[in-house]
## 1
Amino acid sequence: MTAPGTAVEHLGAEYFQDPNAVHARLRAERPVSAVIMPGGMPAWLITGYAEARAALTDQRLRKSWPGRDMAVDSMYAALELHMLNSDPPDHERLRRLVNKAFTSRRVELLRPRITAITAELLDDMSTQRDVDLLASFAFPLPITVICELLGIPVADRDDFRKWSATIVSDTVSPAVFEADAGAMIRYFMALLAAKRHEPADDLLSALIATGDEGDRLSENELVSMAFLLLLAGHETTVNLIASGMLALLLNPGQLDRLRADPSQLGRAVEELLRYVSPVNHATFRFAAEPVEIGGTRIGAGEVVVVALSSADRDPGRYSDPERLDLGRDSSGHLAFGHGIHYCLGAPLARLEAEIAFSGLLSRFGSMRLAVPAESLRWRPSTLIHGLETLPVRLRP
Ligand code: HEM
């Protein structure tokens, strides 16, 4: 599938640790590159901003690929029949069912609860001098919010944290994947059965009711929806908070600037989204027919991976893109994607991030990194760019 005369880039362990370095090199050579994903799959990696934006709205690049038949009772049908894997008209039908719950207006109603959860977590941390900010704050905040919204017992969070880490990992064995994906499916099936029996005032109960009345969501679609919302709700915002805080700690001038003028927080969160890009690349797309992008011909059936983090560091779009600049206009960034699959949870993620950074900055005026930055490790996932841990010292 390679274009004549071009080398194929093998994405391996060094890519997990520093995707930006690999992207900068590939982008400088050409905006669309032939790569081998860590699992061995060949794909086209789009690294240029203009090409990425165009690809995300190109209707010839689809989520369902030739031969895929999700109606077939495969084990994964229960995880894969969701909106992010669907093309129109299914996509619209699935998204419409939950759209309202995630509008800015509805999400704003969650502000008091998000503020209260944040305050509780900050109180717990304030008794300590050294903490892992990821485990103590960046993870529990969004997971608690999404669990409460969906009606999933937050006490089970260690289980589904493990399962979903497996699902987004590029390095686990097929046996581990099957075991953890199976456990996740069985968990949701049992939870949905319990809610059907005893509905509560939560989003999953509302979705079951919609399905029962209009027969609009199959059992597999319900499980897939719950899975997607839970996964998207906690694999992403956690990294905006943790990697965003790391970026601020490594750029003290920018951090001071934000402390001096907290009214700039909204703008700062947009720049942090551009700069840390919690979702490294968009989910896979497949060419339904031959397509030309950035001068490269992509054959029918080939896989296209849009590197969002790379697009947002394209010097053709943002000046001095490798620099964190909280004052810049970062609008147009692709951290939430673009087109019909644009992030449903963007208003929620923005609100959580604003409350989180505001709390962290006002409570811990002298927070600093507790280990050398070079020793920090990133998770082995090409999809999610997130830290394993973030050790910080909260007080001198
Ligand atoms: C900083 C946090 C977040 C980031 C960076 C992020 C990023 C993204 C991106 C890049 C996409 C598009 C993927 C693609 O086109 O392949 C997406 C889609 C999606 N996100 Fe988020 N997300 C975040 C938080 C959330 C939250 C809190 C939720 C809440 C449930 C959520 C739910 C979704 C859903 C359901 C989709 C699929 C939309 C569709 O297919 O129409 N996300 N997100």
## 2
Amino acid sequence: MTGISVAPAAPMTKRLFIKTYGCQMNVYDSARMADLMTPLGYASAPTAEGADLVILNTCHIREKAAEKVFSELGAIRRLKLRRQREGGRMLVAVAGCVAQAEGAEIQRRAPFVDIVVGPQAYHRLPELVARAARAEEGGVLDTSFPAEPKFDYLPEASASAGFAAFLTIQEGCDKFCTFCVVPYTRGAEYSRPAAEIIAEASRLVASGAREIMLLGQNVNAYHGTAPDGGEWRLGDLIRALARLPGLARIRYTTSHPRDVDDGLVAAHRDVPQLMPFLHLPVQSGSDRVLGAMNRRHTADQYKATVERLRRARPDLALSSDFIVGFPGETDQDFQATLDLVGAVGYAQAFSFKYSPRPGTPAAAAEDQVPEPVKAERLAALQAFLQEQQHAFNAAYIGCRLPVLFEKPGRHQGQLVGRSPYLQAVHAEAPADRIGEILPVVIRAAQPNSLAGDIANLAAGDGEWAV
Ligand code: SF4
């Protein structure tokens, strides 16, 4: 969950509070919703208390996501009633994937919600807010998949995206993995035109961004219109973005193994700004389970893709998502997952027990795996992945890594940033070095981060060009 900042509140402005759940794409969407409301006089508020408009930007990926939203709405309702007693009015909106999937249910169980808006319709937020403000009671629902591309109707992104910025280049998914709600909540795949993305990236760089993370539910399926009217794939777009002066680092997430094409592999080989870290979810190491998940590749094909990428960029660090206890998963299937982890070697990973998502094909499968078996397998997988992550981090002790410092650390005088391999790195340095890429000699490796010393800071060691 993340708070989002827009321009500081000024007198006479209306107060907007956005609570963001889930992935970076939701963080990006929340920032764009704030951008949409800024011209209408809304400015950020640190809490929902006393806000004129509260938006919950929800995520449907994790278990019991809808229940968490309903519980949050209970607290928001009390604030709304208090506001009413004080003679004011608070509009409440639910956006994001839970809004898309459970719109009617939200209106039934939480009739005080004024607006329910899906992820493909939030560019209509100003109009929906105006309609809700006019209505005495009864909510406004828009969970359509509009024909007009949302991005054509969004204002330019605000310039406060920070040194490591997000930029959505693609949305939706046509893959229909049997466990996933994304094709239902985000709709069909859509790629933004390249010129629009380059323009937004240029503005982000002009406002101070040193790194841009390109976002999409299936980001490497990107196939946007090129500036000359042809088609660009992700590799072409990365090469164009790498020509922007001042943009030191490019990353992208989340990828599908089937969409790693030769152009993308070549970009990993040729483009130094493309960081040597890739989140490439595999979910399972068993071909039988991969088939049941409709992943459309085998374990061997995944390993071959990793090999192609590593030949192009030998220091490429990998991350993945794993689901254990998918319906029908046997001990042998799970062992195949452990074997794949051993063969690939991950720098970090996310792993979860399978939990059914209403409306997805796997939710209706009869051969669900008992909870204790799932828990046991998850513990074994996580222990193995942690061991790999720790070994990966420990291998950098004594090495010099270029670190983009993004913010103050938890301790006084400390900054935190990211290595090229996406490791969090802590080092002591003055706050005015935030936003710089500095060489750090790694001193210690924790399970989830590194600690080090900035090399020759006093001697004025300059920035690393990476
Ligand atoms: S490719 Fe990713 S987003 Fe698309 S259905 Fe599969 S898991 Fe969901």
